[in-house]
């Protein structure tokens, strides 16, 4: 069997003192040997840096400096990484034990895939809110590849020019669409395993409408008609409002 690939876990954060330790512990608990953890901090002022320094032995690369947004920070972190693949674990994400091994096994078995993704549990104040299933075939309608549960070839990131700094929220959807257009639908392989937990309350959850507006622009960029893209936008916005009402958000 080929050796498992070297994987870079990428974490970007700013003022994440309340959650960053869970993310660090999750990475450490993965039990994956061929691993580096790259952390890019946007200039935190809430004690995040002190926590990161306390766990410095778990972090292979750490920088803290101002950035121009999420896309800029992600590009900075991935550029620093040395892995054949990377996976994004934001400061409100937790990788589950054995998750990297399962994703890496699938990447070796399906070497043509540029992105290998699994299921992600979306949590609301510690309770399961919904299951984010990897459905790459639906990318032309919505964000259907959970990037916090996706192992991505660095070559694919390079081939599509990284994350677009013009996108403030839906850069992950745009990135996955560009990978699909560059490499075709076979660029994705989904496994039926739960690989991560994602907690609501981040930027995309606070600025839902802006995220869906950017998603609409992503679809148009990918060749979807303006009418179909706007219909997807309205449907996603409606579903989000209903879900938030049930959550009492």
Largest sheet report: 9 strands, mixed
The CATH superfamily is known as Spore Coat Polysaccharide Biosynthesis Protein SpsA, Chain A
Low-confidence stretches: none
Q: CATH class, please? A: Alpha Beta
Q: Residue-averaged pLDDT, rounded?
A: 94
CATH architecture: Alpha-Beta Complex
Strand content: 15-25%
Over the alpha carbons, how many angstroms does the gyration radius reach? 17 Å
Residues in helix, %: 25-40%
Shape: globular
Can you characterise this structure?
By secondary structure, the chain is α/β, with parallel strands linked by helices. The protein has helices spanning 20-29, 48-54, 70-80, 99-109, 154-159, 171-183, 203-206, 208-221, 226-247, and strands at 7-13, 35-41, 61-64, 85-88, 93-95, 115-124, 127-132, 150-153, 188-199. The longest helix has 22 residues, at 226-247. The N and C termini lie far apart (48 Å).
Please supply descriptive tags for the structure shown above.
single chain; about 250 residues; alpha/beta; Spore Coat Polysaccharide Biosynthesis Protein SpsA, Chain A; nine-stranded mixed sheet; 9 strands; about 40% helix; globular
SSE arrangement:
Blueprint: E1 7-13, H1 20-29, E2 35-41, H2 48-54, E3 61-64, H3 70-80, E4 85-88, E5 93-95, H4 99-109, E6 115-124, E7 127-132, E8 150-153, H5 154-159, H6 171-183, E9 188-199, H7 203-206, H8 208-221, H9 226-247
Parallel strand pairs: 1-2, 1-4, 2-3, 6-9
Antiparallel strand pairs: 4-8, 5-9, 6-7, 6-8
Helix pairs in contact: 6-8, 8-9
A few lines on this structure:
With 249 residues, the chain is an alpha/beta fold. It has helices spanning 20-29, 48-54, 70-80, 99-109, 154-159, 171-183, 203-206, 208-221, 226-247, and strands at residues 7-13, 35-41, 61-64, 85-88, 93-95, 115-124, 127-132, 150-153, 188-199. It contains nine helices and nine strands.
């Amino acid at each position: 069997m080929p050796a498992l690939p070297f994987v870079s876990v990428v974490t970007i954060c700013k003022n994440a003192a309340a959650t960053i330790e869970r993310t660090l512990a999750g990475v450490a608990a993965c039990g994956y040997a061929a691993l580096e953890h790259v952390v890019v901090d946007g200039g935190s002022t809430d004690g995040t840096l002190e926590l990161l320094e306390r766990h410095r032995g778990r972090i292979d690369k750490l920088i803290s400096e101002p950035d121009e947004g999420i896309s800029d920070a992600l590009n900075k972190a991935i550029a620093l990484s040395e892995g054949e693949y990377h996976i994004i674990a934001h400061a409100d994400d937790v990788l589950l034990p054995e998750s990297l091994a399962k994703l890496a096994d699938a990447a070796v078995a399906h070497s043509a895939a540029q992105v290998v993704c699994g299921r992600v549990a979306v949590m609301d104040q510690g309770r399961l809110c919904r299951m984010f299933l990897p459905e790459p075939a639906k990318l032309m309608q919505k964000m259907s590849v959970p990037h916090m549960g996706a192992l991505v070839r660095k070559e694919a990131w390079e081939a599509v020019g990284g994350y677009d700094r013009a996108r403030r929220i839906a850069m992950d959807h745009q990135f996955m669409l560009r990978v699909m257009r560059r490499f075709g639908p076979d660029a994705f392989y989904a496994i039926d395993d739960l690989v991560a937990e994602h907690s609501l309350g981040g930027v995309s959850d606070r600025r839902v409408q802006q995220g869906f507006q950017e998603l609409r622009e992503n679809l148009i960029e990918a060749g979807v008609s303006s009418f179909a893209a706007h219909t997807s936008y309205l449907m996603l916005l409606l579903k989000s409002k209903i879900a938030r009402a049930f959550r009492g958000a």
